[in-house]
Write the structure tokens for this entry.
Amino acid sequence: MQAADLIAFEREVAERFEDGEIHAPCHLSGGNEEHLLEVFREVRPEDWVLSTWRSHYHALLKGVPRHEVMAEIMAGRSMNLHFPKHRFMSSAIVGGMLPIACGLAAAGHKVWCFIGDMAFSTGLFHEAYMLASARKLSLELIV
């Protein structure tokens, strides 16, 4: 997948939303495609990726097929995408994936957890970071 593919996907979501085909909130990404492509070069199929309400790019880069991501968005689940067979989950709750990320990492999984700057400023982030550091968990926290 290339940056142009990600941008085209978000453009289609925006158009469908503007045309009234999507009846739930959608939070689009843009401008960080190259950085995400770099991060996802390290993500393996067996790794878990957890994300925020702004997760379309993350799901696509994790390997979730485009049509499956679009189907969930069309069904009104843009902000809470879950594809367990692809080891991908997201939540609209600020910092909501942090405890789950710690649990998965404590169970021996490699986890990549994307959070926003709001979640970064919470005590929840601090607690997750301290636990992961103290226990040397295989957890990457990406802001």
Notes: The mean pLDDT is 95.
